[in-house]
Each structure stands twice: as C-alpha cells, then as structure tokens.
Write a structure and sequence with these properties.
Residues 16-53, 80-107 form a coiled coil. With 123 residues, the chain is mostly helical. It has one domain: Helix Hairpins, CATH 1.10.287.370. The protein has helices at 2-48, 69-122; strands at residues 56-60, 63-67. The protein has a two-stranded antiparallel sheet. Strand 1 (56-60) and strand 2 (63-67) form a beta hairpin. Helix 1 (2-48) packs antiparallel against helix 2 (69-122).
Length: 123
C-alpha cells in the first residue's frame, strides 16, 4: 500500500512540476504580449499626431520603404486587435493552469498525509 502511494505521489508530483513549468511559460508569454501591446499603442498614438503631409516608412529587412499612411494605421489597428485577443487567450490559459495547479497541490498534500499516517503504523 505504501509503495502504491509513493508511486502515486511521484506521478502527481511530476504532473505538478509540468503544470508549474507551463504556468511559467504562459506568464512569460503574457509579459511579451503586454510589451508588444504597449509598443503598438505608442505607435498608434504617434500616428494620431501625423498630418496628411507626413510620410510613413516601414522597415523591410535593412531598407526603409515608404508606406501609405492609412495602410500603416490599419496594420497597427489589426496588430493591436490580434495582440489583445492573444492576451485574452493566455489569460484563460493562466486561469486554467492555476486551477489545475491548485488541484494537484491539494492531491499531493492528501497523498503526503496518507503516507505520514502509514509510517507510524509500519514502525
């Protein structure tokens, strides 16, 4: 019985560590998306200050290429929508992983308690 509990503890512990790793990756992804969102909002703010006479350039590889102002603004708006959607997706993933992490932690505590209760009986 103790060997089965010990084995179950190992399996749940490994699952818990994997969830923690996934949680860490999701947090990193969320931070990168937040940085991209901030950067693109700044670009949109700069675009709002442009006049019709201003020229917009886009970096393509090592070259600056002239771009239509309306197209550039539309690209930034599209990018912002995409980033916001990705942030929502990652937040859902973070919530799900947080719940799974709590379940595994509770399961680990339960197994640990059962193992500790068996030890005095074996002695």
């Amino acid at each position: 019985m103790a060997a089965a509990l010990q084995e179950r503890f190992q399996v749940v512990s490994t699952d818990f560590q994997k969830i923690q790793n996934d949680l860490s990756l999701a947090v990193d992804a969320r931070q990168k998306l937040e940085a991209q969102l901030s950067e693109n909002e700044l670009v949109k703010k700069e675009f709002a200050a442009l006049t019709a006479e201003n020229t917009v350039y886009k970096l393509v590889g090592p070259v600056l290429v002239q771009q239509d102002q309306a197209e550039a603004k539309q690209n930034v708006d599209t990018r912002l929508d995409f980033i916001r959607g990705e942030i929502k997706r990652v937040e859902g993933q973070l919530k799900d992983l947080g719940e799974k992490s709590e379940q595994k932690k509770t399961e680990l505590v339960g197994i640990q308690t059962a193992l500790q209760q068996q030890q005095p009986a074996a002695a």
